[in-house]
Design a protein that fits this description.
By secondary structure, the protein is an alpha/beta fold. Helix content is about 55%, strand content about 10%. A six-stranded mixed beta sheet has the order 2-3-1-4-5-6, sandwiched between helices. Strands 7-8-9 form a three-stranded antiparallel beta sheet, with no helix packed on it. Bound molecules: guanosine-5'-diphosphate and magnesium ion. GO terms for molecular function: GTP binding.
Length: about 500
């Protein structure tokens, strides 16, 4: 069935002449249509009559006899999951075309970029890696046509790889280039070379981390000084053989973190044929070990770079000596038999490499460093705590997790409800018991006070009868005494 065929969708909508809808609906359907996006599509866009019309056609047997009626998009989305970059749930409808009635002068907009570029210096951080003596320092001086790196004396073999970044400011006309050269003397000097790559990897990652840290602090976010490695020039010894094991290891480690451009050093030591064969061998090795190199593995403008890509890996010659040829100053190496010229494309690929670095791809190198390598670094760190690699992959997982979370919350709430109810019942029982006891007590005290009252009344009554008896007795006594006194 044609459900996952972009051309089918295209034709489906074009036949219906709903071109405006086709413009955005077809990419959406053939791109990563997530469950969430489909919901959004259903909710938002399907309210548009033209889309409803298209969807109606889609469901009708005339247009799409085998599409299941309930929701073909959902099925399509599930089928296409993970095959295209995720466009995100924030995707909105494309802008509508409008032609201004009067000239706005928009064609001058690119000038703003030029002015901005003139105001702000360009930055390029270049790491040079390769065994000592391959001519890295000489090459960097040749490349920038100035004595940037002063040491030319052979370096003492060091115990560890030293990383020494030096920043230069090169000014040409109105343009300023802040260039940082990160030399790595000591790389490959030891017998056991497997460890040599670690300091380089650490350095690269430290720069990503520093940039990330700076980004988190809003006050220093704007002038964040970019020390990330934008390009790594990897110098390969002109041996004519396959890549050495430690070169493969280093290239693998570096190319997974930065843009790597492989370079064959000291091209003047090889014949034309040897250079050609060596290039083929290296390219085979790179593809065998799945080592992505710049620009082949990255650039989106392959057609504009084809004339440069055919020279990869670039052969170079370094020379800091100015020579004369036909009374013109040139850079080259003087031998007994003649001169090899740095900028002669029959002698080496120096001019092509320079074009890639400064004319065609400087901005792209910086951009890829930010959008690919730096984000890969951040993503790998963020994923450490178990986050899924992309929204796309977590789509189903996410729904399930939300469902699980919802379930567990409702269970927890139910348990809590039950607990509260039990507590309440318990409390009520306690209260009831206490009240009952109180009532009994009150009753008791009532009864007691009633008895007390009765007793008191009895006492009072007895008191009164006693008093009357006493009075009667006294009267009797008095009358007897008076009778006695009369007799006398
Ligand atoms: P590094 O250790 O890689 O920085 O190498 P250097 O730049 O210090 O160069 C080491 C030696 O190689 C010096 O004597 C240079 O003159 C020489 N050298 C540099 N580039 C070339 C080159 O392209 N061809 C040849 N034949 N020798 C070179
Ligand atoms: Mg050096």
């Amino acid at each position: 069935m044609l459900l996952n065929d972009a051309a089918y969708w295209q034709q489906l909508f074009q036949n219906d002449t709903i071109l405006s809808v086709t413009q955005w609906l077809v990419p959406m359907l053939t791109g990563n249509a997530l469950t969430g996006k489909l919901r959004c599509l259903n909710n938002m866009y399907f309210s548009s009559p033209s889309v409803q019309n298209a969807v109606g056609k889609l469901h009708s047997s005339e247009w799409c006899p085998t599409v299941p009626k309930p929701c073909p998009f959902l099925k399509f989305a599930r089928h296409q999951r993970g095959t295209h970059p995720d466009l995100g749930p924030w995707r909105s409808a494309p802008p509508q075309q409008a032609t201004p009635s009067t000239k706005l002068g928009m064609d001058a907009l690119p000038l703003q970029s030029v002015q901005k570029a003139n105001r702000q210096p360009f930055r390029l951080n270049v790491m040079v890696v390769g065994e000592s003596g391959l001519g890295k320092t000489t090459f960097m001086n040749t490349l920038f046509n100035t004595d940037l790196v002063s040491e030319i004396v052979p370096e003492e073999p060091t115990k560890t790889v030293k990383i020494s970044p030096i920043t230069y400011e090169l000014i040409e006309g109105k343009t300023t280039l802040q260039l940082t050269i990160i030399d790595t003397p000591g790389f490959g000097d030891r017998l056991d070379r497997s460890e040599d790559i670690n300091p380089l990897v650490r350095y690269i990652e430290n720069q990503y981390q520093a940039y990330w840290d700076a980004e988190k602090i809003s006050s220093i976010r704007k002038p964040t000084f970019d020390t990330r490695v934008h390009v790594c020039l990897y110098f390969i010894s002109p041996s004519g053989h396959s890549l050495k094991a430690h070169d493969v290891l280093a290239l693998q480690e570096l190319s997974s973190r930065v843009n790597v451009i492989p370079i064959i050093a000291k091209a003047d030591t090889m014949t034309q044929r040897e250079k050609k064969l060596f290039k083929q061998t290296i390219l085979q090795d790179l593809s065998l070990h799945a080592i992505p190199i710049y620009p082949t593995a990255y650039s989106e403008h392959h057609e504009t770079l084809e004339h440069l890509e055919q020279h990869i890996p670039f052969t170079v010659i370094g020379s800091e000596v100015g020579l004369q040829k036909d009374e013109k100053p040139i850079r080259g190496r003087q031998y007994d038999w003649g001169i090899v010229e740095v900028e002669n494309e029959n002698h080496c690929d120096f001019i092509h490499l320079r074009e890639i670095l400064f004319i065609t791809c400087l901005a792209e190198l910086v951009e890829i460093t930010h959008t690919r390598h730096y984000h890969d670094y951040r993503a790998s760190h963020l994923r450490k705590d178990g986050r899924p690699p992309s929204i796309l992959e977590c789509d189903e997982e996410y729904d399930r997790r939300i469902e699980d979370a919802r379930k567990s919350i409702s269970e927890r709430l139910q348990r809590k409800d039950e607990e509260i109810r039990q507590n309440f019942v318990q409390l009520a029982r306690h209260q009831e018991l206490a009240l009952r006891k109180k009532e009994e007590k009150v009753c008791m005290s009532h009864r007691f006070s009633f008895q007390h009252k009765e007793l008191m009344e009895d006492i009072e009554r007895e008191k009164a009868s006693l008093a009357s008896e006493e009075e009667a007795f006294l009267q009797t006594l008095e009358s007897r005494q008076s009778v006695k006194a009369g007799k006398r």
